[in-house]
Every structure is written in structure tokens, then in C-alpha cells.
Amino acid sequence: MLETRDLTIRFGGHVAVNSVSCAFAPGTLTAIVGPNGAGKTTYFNLISGQLKASAGTVSLDGHSLSGLSPSARTHAGLGRAFQLTNLFPNLTVLENVRLAVQATRDGAHRRGLNLWSIWSDHKALTERADQILAEVALKSREHATVASLPHGDQRKLEVALLMALEPKVFMFDEPTAGMNAAEAPVILDLIRKLKKDKTKTILLVEHKMDVVRELADRIIVLHNGTLVADGEPAEVIASPVVQEAYLGVSKEAA
């Protein structure tokens, strides 16, 4: 269970996230929606440790993550897609994913054993990386350098790295942004597949309401940094506060 309690951040006199308390259970996909500037990505950054909270706490399975670095939170089980900033542009696609797999596993590559055991371990890491690349439809590009990839393929690689970390919590911030109509379904199919694993928790920031309606088990709505709605998709989307704050419909019209 991922939980935030009274999570808050202030930038000078501006409160970007205002005392947000929410719990996210395994086996659920929660969509976080709201107008531009609502605090959605900032909330993600507070959970993953990219930003330091002014007040409040973050915990996972009862263990506090507050005060931990982003990398320590990753080791604790948080997986955040970082919109291309974690890619190594001069390495190949395969090398990027293999490094991510390697980071989560014990083996000869960590212990400096004999060459045979190191080769065997390297082979296993490569096989797992190949498996992940096949799942994100990048196997044919495995020997290409990341810098040479078009934007859509870089976004797919970003998801591949997240999968390689095998986190308890998957955090996707607009995963299909910048993708064309042919590329986006690959990412959405991967998220559907991840949803089937009821031990995993998925958080999704997404502006496309058709995607939210299809994938989400629950929607929370942020507006001016404050949690204004939380519930089942149909109920939340139909609520007057969401119609006004997110969809731009007046209360009278709603």
C-alpha cells in the first residue's frame, strides 16, 4: 500500500500541492487528472523524491519513504517513468535495458567471480533484457543507439526501463505524450498487461479522458494543488466539481 498523508509543498507563497492524503492499494490503477497547473506532476515528484515536501509523509507498505533519496525510493519499490531523463543516449537500446535489469539483481557481475560465472550471469541479464524489449516492440532496434531513436521509440524504451526495475508501484506521467496514433497502443497494451498483476499498484497521470475511462479503476482529481474528487471513474467524471474544474463546464450547465 502506497500512502501519502497531508503531503504539501510550497514555493514561496504558492502552495503547489496542498495537504493531499491518499492511499493506493495493490491491484488498482488510479488515474490522477486535473487541469494544467493542478499539481499532478508535482505530486508525482513528491512521491518519488524528486522534490522535498514542505510537510506530510510518503510511505510504502507501512515503511516511511520521507527523507529518502529518489534512488533509495526506487530500491524500496517505487518505479517512476522519468520522461527520457534516465536514458543513456550514447548506449544501445539493449545496453540501457540490461543495465536496468542488472541494477535489481544479485549475481556474478556484483561479486567478481570467475569468467565462466560472469559470462553465464551476463547471458541471463541479456536474455531478460531481450524479453522486455520484445514486450515493448523494440527488439528490432536493440543495437541502435538511444540518441538515434525517434521520440515514440524513446518513450517505449522509458517504459522498458521501468519494467526492468520490477517495482511494486508503477508511476506513469502521460506515457503516450508525443506519440502518434500507431505508437500509443503499444504503451497502452503494456499498461493493460501490468494491470493483470494484482500485486502491483499503478498511478497514471493522463489528459486523454478516453484512456482514463478505459484503464482506471479509480480517479482522483487535483485542482490548484488540492484533492477535490476521489472515486470510481463514472462517478467522478460526472461530478459538478470535475465538470467545472477539469472539463470547463459551469455548475449550472452540469
Automatic annotation (TrEMBL):
One of its GO terms (molecular function) is ATP binding. Residues 2-249 form the ABC transporter domain. SUPFAM superfamilies: P-loop containing nucleoside triphosphate hydrolases. Keywords: ATP-binding, Cell membrane, Membrane, Nucleotide-binding, Transport. Pfam families: ABC_tran (PF00005), BCA_ABC_TP_C (PF12399). One of its GO terms (cellular component) is plasma membrane. It comes from the Bacteria. Coiled coil: none annotated. The keyword Zinc does not apply. This is ABC transporter ATP-binding protein.
